[in-house]
Design brief:
Low-confidence stretches: 1-5
Strand order of the largest sheet: 4-7-2-1-10-13-12
Amino acid sequence: MTYSGVMSMPVTYRVSMPQPHSHLFEVEAVFPPAGNELTVALPVWTPGSYLVREYSRHVQDLTITNTAGEALPFERIDKRALRIKAGNANVHLKYRVYANELTVRTSHLDGTHGYFNGATLFYYSEQLRERPHHVAVDAPKGWRTTVALDQQGNEFVAPNYDELVDSPFEVGPHTPIHFNAAGVPHEIVMWGDPQLDEKKLVTDLTRIVETEAALFDGLPMKRYVFFIYGTDKGRGGLEHKASTALLFPRSGFSSAKGWEDFLTLAAHEYFHLWNVKRIKPKRLVPFDYSQENYTQLLWFFEGGTSYYDNLLVRRAGLMSPSRYLTRFGESLTALHTTPGRNVVPLADASWLSWTKHYRPDENSPNSAISYYLKGEIVCALLDLHVRRATNDAKGLDDVLRQLWARYGDESGVPEDGIEKVATEVAGIGLKDFFDHALRGTKELDYSVFAHVGLEVRLRQRENSSDKGGTPPRKGNDKGPGGWLGILPKAGAGVASVLDGSPAMAAGLYADDEIVALDGFKCDASTLVSRCDDKKPGEQVKITLFRRDKLLELNVTLANKPADGVYVARVENPTDAQKAAYKAWLGAAWDESEAKS
């Protein structure tokens, strides 16, 4: 390959994996001349996952030379960066990266495949960040490479470092599945033996893609890749500009509920093609890979995407209206069972994602709230407020389309941009709503659901496995049992003790190892279920180990809080409410009622 001159010379990488069982990627990087000194570094985080992960800790066996193989002097600036005496010549780096963490935001290499995110593998230079970046992959025999980047000869080509970091690679013995949706080629690559019905997978993903494309009148990329990883445990996804990585328990694909969960995960990450990857917070433009990047807007960019993942699966005809409302009720229940909702404002939860959301501890339920979870609910309320203000002529769809028109060039949304555009679309002042929902810690106001003939109701949960979302069971005369107020770990340990609970009042601690209840053996999980079988006001004796010391605590169980939430239809809806319901959920009131 030839280049027109020095200024167009790319940064090049060669990735090999001669011993996959070692979990070591071998990388050669060549940086073209950029002056007498060249500074290179690894990112400390992956865009889309807001936690400093210190990728440089996995680098080993680093050498730095010129083209002739002569060692170049360098100094370490900090934990991630090197200053090299380059002499205005090419700089060659050779190093190995340990990769044995199977998540969507890191890298993984073993005898079955290699998966890598660029932030974990590729040193970069701010001096050359906007140059093209090319990658050649030396794959083991029988393995192929799939990535959403263009290919020129034996190299995969990114126009700059940011797009390279935004394009994960899968190297392995896979056979991609090809399909077209909304006029754009799509591929599916699977690893981990997920046992999927390929025809159903393609059919359902096509419906989701085309539903989302219709919202924005087309797709913003020329090719897209779904990477699907079946695992024994773990669930997650990470968005990219032309691909996504989806991690999902392989056992979940076989049940109706599991398949529904998978489709909402896929819909969520695909929606990020617009919301985050192109419409993005201005504070993240450009990405600073050296440190945290702060914004208050993750409630919309992640929470809003969470709102749309269920809604778009519903619009695609892959979820019934009753299931949608049940799932939304489960989200409301998750919010109301988290004491931290009354402690941290939603806007602050976004700002503090670097220390709160991705670094939970035993006190997190009491001190934090997920901007995904509360953001989903606030965006639903915002949608209904806009619909009510415009007599259903407009909604959150129109807010998104306006944001797409104004900021889809990736220039970035200012911190007050969402509120301004929503106010413009609604045609009324929304300051009180945003002050309450984003900047306050009082309970949310759900009265706007009346616009679509619905109301949010609270009840006591029957037991610890009750996720809410549905009305109280008929014929359940037993009534809710006693409330202890802990979250159990898998096994004997206590994960968290909730504020205001009998457990906290009695002095039960996180990490206590439960031994018995009233003299009979149990662990933390069975402790909760046995308290469910008792009555409020009963006193129980809990035997436990705390730092290897045997203790007994007397706890008086309390009434369960009314934190099970569900969405119910009003008894006598007006024609206007029925019409608004149909405009929102895309199903006639009577049709939805028949399917409920």
